[in-house]
Amino acid sequence: MGSGDGTSAASATRNDVWVVVEQHDGTAAEVSLELLGRARELADRLGVGTGAVVAGAGAPVRALAPALIARGADTVYLADHDDLGDYLALPYTRLVAGLIRQHQPQIVLYGATTTGRDLAPRVASALRTGLTADCTDLRIGDFSAKGETYADLLFQIRPAFGGNIIATIVSPEHRPQMATVREGVMVMPEADESRAGAVVTVPVERSSAPVAPADRIVFTEPDFAVRLVKRVQEEKRVDLKGARVVVSGGVGVGSREGFALVEKLARTLGGVVGASRAAVDAGWVGHEHQVGQTGTTVRPKLYVACGISGSVQHRAGMDQSARILAINSDPGAPIFSVAHYGIVGDLHKVIPLLIQAYRTKA
Amino acid sequence: MPQLRIVVLVKQVPDTANVTGDAMKEDGTVNRAALPAVFNPEDLNALEEALRLKDRHGGRVTVVTMGPPAAVQVLRESLYRGADEVILLTDNAFAGADTLATSYALALAVRKLGGCDLVLCGRQAIDGDTAQVGPQTAEKLGYPQITCVSRIDELVAPAGSTDGVITATRSIEGGFETLSSSLPCLITVTGEANEPRPASVKLVMTYKGIAAEAMPEYDDTYLDPESDVAEVCMLGRDGQPVCRARVVQWDHLALAADREALGLRGSPTRVKEIESVVLAQSEARMVEPDEAGVAALVHELIEEHILG
Known about the structure:
Chain A is of the alpha/beta class. Chain A has helices at 4-12, 30-46, 59-62, 65-70, 89-103, 114-127, 256-268, 277-281, 312-316, 347-361; strands at 17-20, 23-24, 27-28, 50-56, 75-80, 107-111, 131-135, 137-145, 148-160, 165-170, 177-181, 198-201, 204-206, 217-219, 226-233, 245-249, 272-275, 302-306, 323-328, 341-344.
């Protein structure tokens, strides 16, 4: 930046809605693409543009820009530098905070992944601005307090207090307004290959000087205090997100043996096994099966909840399913409030009936 | 390095895992008084990591909490497990702090302690689940961070040198990564890391009932066994040791804090609205738990192509 062109470009995109895109080997994280869809909606409501920040090293990250434009980005800020090949908190904070200072977006969104939850708070602290974690919804609206009205704020909506309340958080006087959002909460936008957008190449330098200048993005030695020793990706064994049918068990299943019945129903229906946090904590099933705010968010055609009472966190991860069948011995269980079909009864008797009925009909 | 210095940041939280009916007031707000206050679980894991590092390398473990005066209880529990020194940050000026204002106060406390080699804290607290205070405190201190750590692999802290290195493994989506950092460094720890040790009966007897005492000037000479003021315990009337002046209490003046950056005033975020989770009237179609009811349901799901 610094040239006349750069300055005018920056002012035209001021107040945009940004998504900090997470990418691995040239593939954008799904949550980042989902966020571009919501960023587009928020920006249209506000009458501004959208920006996507993406960083990495080499050709794969450069090739990503058209896909981000197709999903809704008007401007892609592309930082390609050898020092950005692997995500590390310090250099990425310097990059993202530096870009925000230069371009002054009004909203910045991050995926609530381990990366987003590592990066966003550090950026928020560097910029002394607000941040809300793990939002389940984002809207635009007005806020009044102490005789002041703030128009068109970002409503950052999230469960809190162990899921017993839903809080709407605003950041009235600090910019940008920032939030992290879990994967699967926002709807993935369709790719529109005909969309037009601009790609801004972000100049990044590495300097041996001890202190970085404020107006450019310059990495210095202290930014590399942490080094990646190794990263191991295990093959994803459970594809909850892509499943047509999810059969989940909760604390009402009662035992590891009882959980085998849940697994049998899942197998019979051609579905995938899910679980509530309580069942995972009890050790009946692995964490990779967990559905809910701190697990995976699913939208199958059919969700069968067996012995799950239905905490807010669990419901946040499954209430968008096309059909929900709840089986619970307690007629007052909250899960029935989101279910389309309810069976009050002992799941150890009801599940075998379901298996038998499906086998004879199908 | 002369002596390994570890600061553990902990929080007293309402026990959100055991919310009962009377925990919510009629207006939909949370009745904190109805919930038992507990040591935030992952902070206990962070304390355990600190104590294990001390067991292996020697050094000093200082525990810091910010909260109301009653939060002294988590500091007592830290002493019961083996912490050397505990600090309570309490002041009305801290009230209403969001994560940014909280990290500001915590970072000032670490600075007042003269900095340290390692800051350890839980990944997140069960009342907010934000996981933000760790990284924000690291940024304010200018320390690097490794978050979401399930295992500390190695600490190399050569005596008399400033070139310490810590190596730790963190969980990431579908795998894990191992990072190494120069010291000082801030690490947030998950519940997977360890099984926290129970309180020691001997230490409980020593520190039971210990109260906080305002000590605006930081003075750690009482920690030195050779020092005259090391004798912090005296015998009570019942012959049991009674301690004094071991919970150091600091307010915003002791931290020399900027009032504008503290508490509600220093918090960019505001709660616009809180809804208690009132469940909508059940719209579920109830199915009889018998063969005929279940068969009719399965038939319908197949007809509607919900089931293949």
